[in-house]
Structure formats: C-alpha cells, structure tokens
Amino acid sequence: MTADPHFPNILMIRKLESIFTLSDEEKQALRDLPIQVISLKDDQDIVRIGDRPSQCCLVLEGFTCVYKLTSEGKRQIMALHVPGDIPDLQSLHLKVMDNSIASISPCTVGFIQHEDLRRVCEHYPRLTAAFWRETLVDASIFREWLLNIGRREAYTRMAHLLCEFLMRLEAVGLVEDGFFDLPITQAELADVIGTSSVHVNRVLQALRADGLIQTKRTQVTIPDWEKLTVAGEFDPLYLHLEGGDAA
Amino acid sequence: MTADPHFPNILMIRKLESIFTLSDEEKQALRDLPIQVISLKDDQDIVRIGDRPSQCCLVLEGFTCVYKLTSEGKRQIMALHVPGDIPDLQSLHLKVMDNSIASISPCTVGFIQHEDLRRVCEHYPRLTAAFWRETLVDASIFREWLLNIGRREAYTRMAHLLCEFLMRLEAVGLVEDGFFDLPITQAELADVIGTSSVHVNRVLQALRADGLIQTKRTQVTIPDWEKLTVAGEFDPLYLHLEGGDAA
DNA sequence: CGACTCTTTGAGGCTCATCAAATGTAGTGG
DNA sequence: CCACTACATTTGATGAGCCTCAAAGAGTCG
Fold this sequence. Notes:
Two copies of one chain form a homodimer.
Chain A: H1 7-17, H2 24-31, E1 36-40, E2 45-47, E3 55-61, E4 64-69, E5 75-81, E6 100-103, E7 107-113, H3 114-123, H4 125-151, H5 154-171, E8 179-181, H6 186-193, H7 197-209, E9 214-216, E10 219-221, H8 225-231
Antiparallel strand pairs in A: 1-7, 2-6, 3-7, 4-5, 4-6, 8-10, 9-10
Chain A binds a DNA duplex through residues 153-154, 185-187, 195-199, 201-202, 204-205, 217.
C-alpha cells in the first residue's frame, strides 16, 4: 500500500468518480475527511450485531464480510466487500447494527466518523446521493444473492459468485488476465453460498474438471469468461457498474 | 379505502412519522406531492427488470412482491411490500431496474414522479435521510432473508416469515389479536422461502399440527406469538421499527 | 354445474448435510 | 532441515431434507 496518508480518501474518491462526476469542491471535501487507518488479521470482528457505532468502515486492502449466525451457530455471509467499499454505511441512518462485519483475510480498513460524513453530506447533496447509491448497489447484490441461494444449485451458485468477484475486483484493478487472488477458505465460501464446506470442495472440483476455473493456493484463474458466465447464469446488470448521474 | 384524495400522502407521512419527527413544513411538502393512484388485479407486473422508470410506486392497499427469475424460469421473491412501503425507491438513484415488481394480491398503488421526489429531497434534507433510511431497512430485511434461506430449514423459515409479516402488518394497523389476512398462494410462499409449493404445504401442516398457526382461507391466526418466535428464531431487531432520528 | 385454481397426498429420486478420517500444506521451534 | 502443530483440503459413506412428477380433493366463480 502506498505511504500516502491520503490514500484512503483517494480510494474513496476514485470509487465515487467511476459513477459520478465530482466537482473540485466535492473532491476536496472528501480529501479533507479524517480517516483513521488500522490493520487487521483475518477473522477479526470489526463491528458486531447490536453495536451502535459512531463511525463507518472503509475497506482499504483485503476483504471483509457481513455475516449473521443462527441460534444453532450456523453462519451465513450476506456480503463480501473489497477495497473501496464501505460495508457498514447503513449505520449512518440505522442506529443499531443488525449484522456483524469481520475481516475475511488480513486487511487494512479506515474509520470515518459519522459526524464527519454527515457534515460532508449536508454541504454537498450530490455526495449524499452518491453514498445513498452505494447502499442501493449493496441491496441489489443482496437481491441477486437471494436468487442465487434460493433458486440455483451449488454448482451454479459458485460459478455465479466467482463471476461477481471477478467483475468487482476488476473494477478496482485487482484482476489481470482473468487471474485474481481469493484468500478465502472453502468453509468461508460455504458460508457465502449457503452449503457445507464438503460440498464446496466437490463443486470446486467439478468446476475445475469442466475447465471453468483453475486454482493454485488462493489464486484463481478464469480461462474462459464466457463459459463461466453461462455456467453461473451471470448477468452483471445488478452490479450497476456504470451510469450513476441522475437523468 | 378512504375517498380522501390525500390518503396516499397521509399514509406516507404516517409511515415516516413512526420513525422521524417531521416539521410542519416537511409534512406540507409531502402532502403536496402529486400521487397518481391506480388499482391492480393480482399477479400484474408494476415494473420489470431492465426498465428505466421515471417514477416510484407507493403501496396503498394489498401486497406487492419484488422478484427475479433464473434462466430456467424459477422465481425467487426477494421482498414483500405492504401498504406504506415504496418497493422501487432504489430507482431514484439506480437508473435500470435490476428486479421486477408485481402485485401479489389485488392492490392499489400510487405513483410518484422521480422529479417531484427529488425536488422535495433537495429542499428538505431530513426527508432525504428518511427515504434513504427506508431503503436501508429494505436492505436489512434482504440480509435476514439471506440468513433464513441460506441457513435455516423450511419449517423455521416459514415460521420466521410469518413472524415478520405479523410485525410489519401490525406496524400499519392491519393486525387484530394475532389475526391477519395473507392473500398469498402456497406456490407464492414457496417462491418467497425458496422451496417447492408441495413442501410449503407440508410445512404449513406441521406448523398447524404444532399449534403455532391457525389458517382459514387466506386468514392466519397466531395463537401463541412467543412460541412462534422461538420456532422461527425471530428477533425483530433487523426490522428497525423504532428510533430513526440521528444521534 | 362445469371450469379453474389452489391445496393436499403419495412415491421415488436427487442434492446436499453430516460425520469421520486421511491427506496436504504452511508455520514454528529445535 | 526435520519434527511437530495447526489448519485446510480431500475422500468416503450414510441419511435427511427437499424436489419432481402425478393425481386426487376442495374451494371459488361465472
């Protein structure tokens, strides 16, 4: 990671700019946002269900996950977040956390105080819209995951998840030639797609056997994007990767 | 339904007021919003995936659902909306619909132009926050449904869904003594909880046999709320039914 | 009363969970 | 460099939950 103390701010600005055109003033306001950076090992809770946080968390490096547990202790991961995402942006308007957020790989995150974020939003309504939109895209991904988990079988689900990951990582420059790092265990993948780790293992073997993915440690290569999207019934519409400025 | 031409506006105001305290000016602005009311039979699409709507839809009477189809034509319902909800509020900031919305019972809905909604939000930032919060609660429900579908079995899932429905309908005054109307077929319930209609039928029988619900036509009675919440592992936290004003 | 839709029931099979154990792969300290 | 530990992946076997197909009852409505 760059030593630039403003790297978190720049990451956030780049992310918003991929959708909205920001004025110099807006960019400056974002650049001036105080962001407290900390590093985490994997599997560390960042916020917990029931908390009443006074800050939001911006992912800088690595991946985080949003999860909940059933009363029998089964875990469901509802979302994965990559650098540039703000997994608990909702806490700006919902006092109590209704889910927990944890690092799923070693990662770096930045904390932004709610009051600072609110102040910026008050002065720059277009930034309010931009942040609001971020939470709407998150919601859109939840919907797609509901379809995935509710109505597709494990093989398709996994292919779909890998497609989504590739696209989202590509958007932040973390993919080269269909090749990216996925530092997530099979047990965690199981918690994402709602199956068991044993079954994840078998599904991954099937995907490899069908030539849809190649894996080496935590590295994943997609040799044939077209084929994987077909196997995963993947249509990137729901990611809303372009066109944010209101009509 | 009342003949009052401002009924839709009043419904919206009441909904927001259950969370935020609104000033007279804010209320007046909402009362002045033009809303075009129309009636629908059941199973009618209101907006479709891929559409670029220029208006939002406020549910006035009956229920609507948010759904998507897999390429094999299987349907997953991602959300149910009750009077007072705005199922496609997201379209204010996401140009293209990533899901379809349909009536699931005969219903009345009101359409509000995006431009009108935007104008109100510009003048009253607290209303922006209130609408933003609505979309955040929707997202919170998506997360809970992901846990439900991904990690709980059908019996628990159904109990959970009925708990949620009771609470949400109670919030808009549509429940009396644990008794409410649920004009939804078992096939539709199956699309909600991600199973088959045959299995829904068996699960409902089991719930009846266990004394957790009583049904008569589309009428549902919950004789023992406490027992049903245990069976459904239900914790209403995720509905965020109170406390919206920022700290 | 017939046409339609929805609910209910049965039977067989498939997907996937669970349990348990073996193998593989870092990371640590001697 | 090797033994040792801690995890993660892989494999096998068994069974539970649920799907699908098919057909029979029950409401509901013109």
